[in-house]
Amino acid sequence: MPDSLPTAEHNLAGLYANHHGWLVNWLRGRLQCSHQAADLAQDTFVRVLLADRSQPLLSELREPRHFLVTMARRVMIDSFRRRALEQAYLQLLAEQPEQYAISPEERWMLVETLQALDAMLEGLGKKVKQAFLLSQLRGLGYKDIAAQMNVSVSSVTKYIARATEHCLLFALEHGQ
């Protein structure tokens, strides 16, 4: 490896070279699918790279396999959640009358939008998320949301303010 490589790239290249095969095997044992294991291992290293860019951590890594397992578990959870969301949406589409059928391109765009929305709302409390979705997707007013959730209008106002702030910060952090 040339000496001119920046430290982060050098560390990531070493981590990848030393542990990629091991991580694929670890994932294959849990997923029972070599293709999915290879994909998720790749996604794990992408996530490591992105995490290291925002907060350098590879140079201080003492237990690389423990770290990779933690990151891979998070990637698996995200993958399972995305797949479940996509399946629920596709099931809903399958139940719609034929006159409301949409093209594969529209379906793909809607699934992508749902996944982005799910990522944006990740980390919000259940009530905050529910109030925000009732407001944004169903168009309910604060009074109606409060009645449906059995909380005060003041609570709904706070929930939606918190969700809106969360979404704005997410958009700023992710360049959206």
How does this structure look, described?
The chain is mainly α. Helix content is 77%, strand content 0%. The protein has seven helices and no strands. Helix 1 crosses helix 3 (64-94), helix 2 (34-54) crosses helix 3 (64-94) and helix 5 (126-136) packs across helix 6 (142-149). The model is unreliable at 1-6 (pLDDT under 50).
Helix-strand blueprint:
Blueprint lengths: L6 H25 L2 H21 L9 H31 L9 H18 L4 H11 L5 H8 L3 H21 L3
Helix pairs in contact: 1-2, 1-3, 2-3, 3-4, 5-6, 5-7, 6-7
What's this, in brief?
By secondary structure, this protein is mainly α. Helix content is 77%, strand content 0%.
Please give the largest β-sheet.
none
Number of E strands: 0
**How far from one another are the termini?**
36 Å
Strand content: under 5%
Query: Tell me, what's the shape?
Result: globular
The H/E string reads: HHHHHHH
Global mean pLDDT = 82
Helix fraction by DSSP (H/I, runs of at least 4): over 70%
GO molecular function: DNA binding; sigma factor activity
Keywords: Sigma factor, Transcription, Transcription regulation
Protein name: Sigma-70 family RNA polymerase sigma factor
Domain RNA polymerase sigma-70 region: 15-84
